[in-house]
Design brief:
The protein is an alpha/beta fold. Helix content is 41%, strand content 16%. The strands form 3 sheets. A 6-stranded parallel beta sheet has the order 1-11-8-7-5-6.
C-alpha cells in the first residue's frame, strides 16, 4: 500500500515558513504585495483567485485585485500590466489564465516584467531555468520538487518520467528534475508504447488532462507517482489523471486529487512573491 503524499500538510508548512519570513520583513519595514488580474468571470478562475487571496492574507502578503469585465480589450489589459510594472509597491503580477479568446495570452505574459513574473511564465524566466540561471520557476513544477524533497524522495540518479509536455508543467518539470540530477524522459501523444516507458520510472509525473488514464499497469512496483491532473470522473467527482485506487496498491508513494499537487501550486506562488520582494530590496 502506497504512502499518501499529503500536499495540504506540506503546503501549510511552506506557508507557515513564509508567514514567519514576512513577519520579520515587516519589522524591517519591508512589505510584500501581489497584484492579481482576472478578466471575465470564469468560475474555475474565480475559485483560484479566491484561494490565492486567502493564501496572501494568511502569509502576510498584501493583494491587489483587478477584476475586469469580459469585454476588456487587449490594449486595456496591456496598459494595466505596464502600470503595475512601474508601481514600486507591487512585487508580483499574476494574470489569471485562461484569458478571453480575443486577448493574446502570450503577448500579455511577455508584457509582465521578468522581475515581477511570479507565475514563472515569461520567456526570460523559462530561458533562465533552461540554462540553470536564477529566475522565477513555474509554480506547479516547483511545488512538485518540494513535495518530493519534503517527503524524503531521493531524485538524484533516479529514472524520472513525465507524461505531458505543456509549457506550464511538463517542460519546466523536466528541467527541474534534471537540475536535481534525475535521468529524465518526457512522454507525449506521439510516444510509442507509453506503458513501456512509464514502467521504467522511479518517479512518474502525470500531467495530461485525461481522467484516471494511468492505472497500475503503467507503473512499476514501488514507484513514486505524482498526479497533476484536475479532472472530473463519470459521476462529476473531482479526480486526477491517475486512477488512484488502482495505483495505490502498487506504488511506493502517490499524491491524491484533491489534496496533492494543487495546494503546492499556491504555496509556491506565495514563495515567489516573497522572493520577488527580497530580490527588489537586494536581500
Amino acid at each position: 500500500m502506497a504512502k499518501i503524499i499529503d500536499g495540504k500538510k506540506i503546503s501549510q508548512e511552506i506557508k507557515d515558513e513564509l508567514k514567519e519570513k514576512t513577519g520579520q520583513l515587516k519589522q524591517e519595514g519591508v512589505s510584500v504585495c501581489l497584484a492579481v488580474i482576472q478578466v471575465g468571470n470564469n468560475p474555475a478562475s474565480t475559485v483560484y483567485v479566491g484561494n490565492k487571496k486567502k493564501a496572501c492574507a494568511y502569509v502576510g502578503i498584501e493583494s491587489l485585485a483587478y477584476e475586469l469585465p469580459e469585454e476588456t480589450t487587449e490594449e486595456e489589459l496591456l496598459k494595466l500590466v505596464r502600470e503595475l510594472n512601474e508601481k514600486e509597491e507591487v512585487d508580483g503580477i499574476l494574470v489569471q489564465l485562461p484569458l478571453p479568446s480575443h486577448i493574446d495570452e502570450d503577448k500579455v505574459i511577455q508584457a509582465i516584467s521578468p522581475l515581477k513574473d511570479v507565475d514563472g511564465f515569461h520567456p526570460q524566466s523559462v530561458g533562465a531555468l533552461s540554462i540553470g540561471q536564477k529566475g522565477f520557476v513555474s509554480c506547479t513544477p516547483a511545488g512538485i520538487i518540494q513535495l518530493l524533497k519534503r517527503s524524503g524522495v531521493e531524485i538524484d540518479g533516479k529514472e524520472c518520467v513525465i507524461v505531458g509536455r505543456s509549457n506550464i508543467v511538463g517542460k519546466p518539470m523536466a528541467l527541474l528534475l534534471l537540475r536535481e540530477n534525475g535521468t529524465v524522459t518526457v512522454c507525449h501523444s506521439h510516444t510509442s508504447d507509453l506503458k513501456e516507458v512509464t514502467r521504467r520510472a522511479d518517479i512518474l509525473v502525470v500531467a495530461i488532462g485525461k481522467a484516471k488514464m494511468v492505472d497500475s499497469s503503467y507503473i512499476k512496483e514501488g514507484a513514486v507517482v505524482i498526479d497533476v491532473g484536475m479532472d472530473r470522473d463519470e459521476n462529476g467527482k473531482l479526480c486526477g489523471d491517475v486512477d488512484f485506487d488502482s495505483v495505490k496498491e502498487k506504488a511506493g508513494a502517490v499524491t491524491p486529487v484533491p489534496g496533492g499537487v494543487g495546494p503546492m501550486t499556491i504555496a509556491m506562488l506565495m514563495n515567489n512573491c516573497v522572493e520577488a520582494a527580497l530580490q527588489k530590496k537586494g536581500l
